[in-house]
Amino acid sequence: MADENRPTSGAADGHSGERRPPRPGGREGGPGGRKFFRRKKVCKFCVEKIDSINYKDVRLLAQFVAESGKIVPRRLSGVCTPHQRRLSLAIKQARNIALLPFAGRAA
What we know:
This protein is mainly α. The protein has a domain at 44-96: CATH 4.10.640.10. Helix content is 31%, strand content 0%. It has 5 helices and no strands. It is elongated, with a radius of gyration of 24 Å. The relative contact order is 0.13. The model has no long low-confidence stretch (mean pLDDT 82).
């Protein structure tokens, strides 16, 4: 019903009004589409049985800091919740004593 009130000329709104054909190998999962298997991320600290996360271990902490200077979130790094909390505290301590930068490199 709402479509009846719209103008039919495509030049007025910048669209031609035609629907795009579906992309090959899209999310339908039909023939020709490759199923993507995502491996479950495991906590690096749990696997290696690292109990304490030290703020002085800059090489370890730098793996969990993005180039922009932000702490990498759990869903991207795969670290479990308790270790993510300890990790973020250690990164913040290392920043305060100038072992890690607060911001990334200026582009």
